[in-house]
Design goal:
Blueprint lengths: L6 E5 L4 H12 L3 E6 L18 E4 L5 H11 L3 E4 L8 H4 L1 H22 L4 E7 L21 H20 L3 E6 L2 E2 L8 H13 L6 E3 L5 E2 L2 E2 H12 L6 E4 L5 E2 H11 L9 E3 L17 H7 L7 H17 L6
Parallel strand pairs: 1-2, 1-4, 2-3, 4-5, 5-6, 6-11, 7-10, 8-13
Antiparallel strand pairs: 9-12
Helix pairs in contact: 1-7, 2-4, 4-5, 6-8, 6-10, 8-10
The chain binds NADP nicotinamide-adenine-dinucleotide phosphate (NAP).
Length: 328
């Protein structure tokens, strides 16, 4: 009582993680500001339900002055930099734009914070794609070896965040998050592409789903579990970097098994086709994380299993078509 309400600015508010983090922070009593860029049609798919609870501010990570204005409007205690060109596949098509938004964007926000002058805690959304070609469980000491323009851009953002912490004594943390999915995952990502297709196959709207490499292995967590880790990092006495992962890896075939099981199909071979078009020029075959440090220092652990998550995703996609609230 009497304590000032904390204020948080989230970039990438309309993405998968933005809405979950906003919900989490509102629950903690924060005043939340979400940065979004202009779009010709406003569809806040993930945030519509938050429209009267948070304040939207206009800004773009490629526009330095707009970031300064967002800081002035929101006067935050904490900034969560979640915005990025986040689709790995797309980063080969638009490598320069990916570097500009995903890499330089973090630098611009850090510079804006420095210029703003007030002490602001900063969270950078780093990624397991920075490890890229890895052969064992990755932790905070594992060598980085990104395998995509996206991974390379994220590595720049990661190191500049660390460098500004060391150069200017800023309270900056990087969360090196392994893949996390949810009902709000963008439709172009393979997990959501599958659950959406399974829903459509179940409802007779589609015959099959065409995928790239089925042999990839990933450490898939549930996004709402992961946003808690972002917040925990900024509540510590000292800023630091943490790997966030489930520590379990699954193949895409496992993901397909769980998804089709939801609609009562055990042999899904006639519904799935492979096409090299969806394979990456340089893929990452194996990714699993060791989140021991986060467990010990933050007291964080994942709560949701892969099968629970996949169930929620397929169920949600079926419901979406039933309600005819189809956005895509
Ligand atoms: P997402 O759904 O792709 O959301 C990214 C958001 O960034 C979008 O809302 C997008 O806005 C916004 N954005 C793109 N370019 C921008 C620009 N120039 N200026 C301002 N905003 C811009 O990503 P996510 O899954 O929520 O992930 C959050 C962050 O964590 C991202 O940085 C991602 O790279 C990183 N990450 C994700 C995972 C994962 O598995 N999900 C794992 C590790 C790290 P529009 O809505 O206008 O397009």
């Amino acid at each position: 009582i009497g304590e000032k309400m904390k204020r948080a600015l989230i970039t990438g508010i309309n993405g998968q993680d933005g809405g979950y983090l906003a919900e989490f922070l509102l629950d903690k009593g924060y005043e939340v500001f979400g940065m979004e860029r202009r779009s010709s049609t406003k569809i806040r798919v993930n945030c519509q339900h938050l429209e009267d609870k948070i304040t939207f501010v206009n800004g773009d990570l490629t526009d330095q002055n707009s970031l300064m204005r967002c800081l002035k409007e929101s006067d935050p205690d904490e900034v969560y930099n979640l915005a990025s060109q986040s689709f790995v596949g797309e980063s080969w098509n638009t490598p320069e734009q990916t570097g500009d938004v995903t890499g330089m964007g973090a630098l611009r926000m850090l510079e804006a914070i420095r210029e703003y002058g007030k002490e602001v805690k900063f969270y950078q959304a780093s990624t397991s794609e920075m490890f890229g070609r890895m052969e064992q469980y990755a932790n905070e000491d594992t060598l980085f070896y990104p395998r995509s323009p996206y991974g390379v851009a994220k590595l720049y953002a990661h190191w500049i965040t660390v460098n500004y912490r060391e150069s200017y004594d800023m309270f900056n943390c990087c969360g090196i998050l392994f893949n996390h999915e949810s009902e709000r995952r963008g439709i172009e990502f393979v997990t959501r592409k599958i659950t959406d297709a399974v829903a459509r196959i179940h409802l007779g709207l589609q015959d099959k789903v065409i995928l790239g490499n089925l042999d990839i292995k990933r450490d898939w967590g549930y996004a709402p579990d992961y946003v808690e880790a972002m917040w925990l990092m900024l509540q510590q006495d000292e800023p630091d970097d943490y790997v966030i992962a489930t520590g379990k890896f699954h193949t895409l075939e496992d993901f397909l098994n769980h998804s089709f099981k939801h609609i009562g199909v055990t042999d899904w071979s006639k519904y799935v086709e492979q096409n090299p078009k969806f394979m990456r020029p340089a893929d990452v075959f194996y990714l699993a994380g060791d989140a021991t440090k986060a467990k010990e220092k933050l007291g964080w652990k994942p709560r949701t299993s892969l099968s629970e998550m996949v169930d929620r995703m397929v169920k949600n996609d079926i419901k979406k078509y039933h309600e005819k609230s189809v956005y895509y």
